[in-house]
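User: Good morning. I'm curious how protoporphyrin IX containing FE would be positioned relative to this chain. Could you predict the structure with it bound?
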Amino acid sequence: MATAIRDTEQPQETVVVEAPHEWDVSRPEIYTEDRWQPIFKEMREKAPINKVTGSSFGDYWNVTTYTPIQHVEALPDIYSSADGITILDDSDFSPEGEEIILPMFIAMDRPQHTDQRRVVAPAFTPAEMTRMADDIRRRTGETLDSLPRGEAFDWVDLVSIELTTGMLAILFDFPWEDRRLLTYWSDWAGDVELSHNPETREERLKILFEMGAYFQNLWDERVKKDEAPDLISRMIHSEAMRDMDQFTYMGNLILLIVGGNDTTRNSMSGFAYGLDKFADERAKLEGNPDLIPNAVQELIRWQTPLAHMRRTATQDHELFGHQISEGDKLLLWYISGNRDETKFERPDDIILDRDKAGRHLAFGYGIHRCVGARLAELQLRILLEEMAERRLRVNVVEEPERVAACFVHGYRKMMVELGEY
Ligand code: HEM
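Assistant: Good morning! Here's the predicted structure, ligand included:
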C-alpha cells in the first residue's frame, strides 16, 4: 500500500517561501538537469499547497498534490483560465504592446469556452479516431521502416516530431509535403522567449503572418467545397464558426497545432526514454502486447508532457485551509500530482500493468480537459503496436537534452539505436 503522507483535505498553516528558494519550481534548470522529483516530493510532504514570492514570474501558489489540483479545476468560475494558462502573464506576451494575441479557447472561461470547444470536439470522437486510425498506422509504419539501422539517430527528430507532425497533418488534411511547416510554426508560435528577444521578435511575427496566409488559403479553398471530415472544413462549416472572425479561426488552429505538438511529441520521446530506463517493464511489454493500452496511459502519466497549467483566482477563496486572494496565480503541477504517493504506488517507477493507469492528471481535469486526448492516445498506441509488430526496441545511447522550461516537460534531442528482440 502507498503510505498517506498527509491528508490534504485538512487545513494547514500556509507556508510562504521567498525566491530564491528550492521550492521556486519555475526555474528551468531543475527540468534540464532532471532533478525536479525530490523538490516536489518535499513539497508534497511538508506543504502540498504553498506560496512562492518574488520569483522571476512574480508570486504564485504551488498546488502539488492530486486532490487539490482536481478541486481547483472543478471550480472554473473561481479559478479562471482567462488570464493565461502558463506561469507567464498575458502582458509577457506583449512587452511592448505590439504583439497580436490570438483568442484561444484554452484561455477562456464559460460561456465562450463552451461554444468554441464545441466546434472542434466532434473531430475527436471515437468514430473519428477509427476513421483516422488506418492513415496514422500507415504513416507510422512508413516512418519506422525508414529509420537507420546499426547507427545512432535522434529519436526526437526522426520519430517523435515526424509522427506528431504527420498526425496533425492527417487531422487537418494539411498538404503532406508541407507538413513540417506545422512543427516550424508551432515552435515559433509556442515559444514566448522568441517574442521577448528583440532579435527574434520581428522574425516571429513575420513567420506567424506567413502561417496566417497559408491557413487563409486553405480556408479559401475549402469554403468553396462541400463539408469534409477534416478539422478545417469542420470549422468552416460549423454553426458557431459562421460568425467567427478570422482571428478566432487562426487562434483555434494555432491552439490545436501547439496543443497537439509538444505534448504528443514528448509522450513518444518519454516512451523511448522511460522503457530504456525500466528494462524489466520493457521486457514485460515485449512478452505481452496486450499490455499496450494500459502502457500508453502509464507512459503518459510518467512523462506528463505539460508540467503545469495555471489558474487565476477571480475572488477570495479558502482552498483546503489556505487563504487565496482575488488575482492570485495558482500553478497546478500535474508533474507532481502524477507522482502523488497517496494515489500512485511507487509513483516514480513505470509499472506498465499498473491498476487504473488512466487516472492520471496529464490531460488535466474538468471543462478544459484535453480535447485531443483520444488522438494522442491513438498515436501512441499505434506506435507501440507497430514497434511490437516489427519486434523493435529502442536503446538510448546517451542522456537526452531536455527542454529548458517549467511548462513543456520534454526532450530536445535523444540519440538512440534500434535493436530487435
Ligand atoms: C488542453 C495535455 C495532446 C489539443 C490540454 C490540457 C492539458 C493537455 C494538460 C489542459 C487541461 C486543463 O486546463 O485542464 C495534453 C497532453 C497531450 C495532448 C499531455 C499528449 C499526450 C493534444 C492533442 C491535441 C490537443 C493531440 C489536438 C490536436 C488541446 C486543446 C486543449 C487542450 C485544444 C484545450 C481544451 C480546452 O480548453 O477545453 N491538453 N494534450 N492536445 N489540448 Fe491537449
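The pocket of protoporphyrin IX containing FE is lined by residues 73, 105-106, 117, 171, 255-256, 259-260, 263-264, 267, 300, 305-306, 309, 362-366, 368-372, 375-376 (CB under 6 Å). Confidence is low (pLDDT under 50) at residues 1-5, 94-98.
Let me know if you'd like a different ligand tried.
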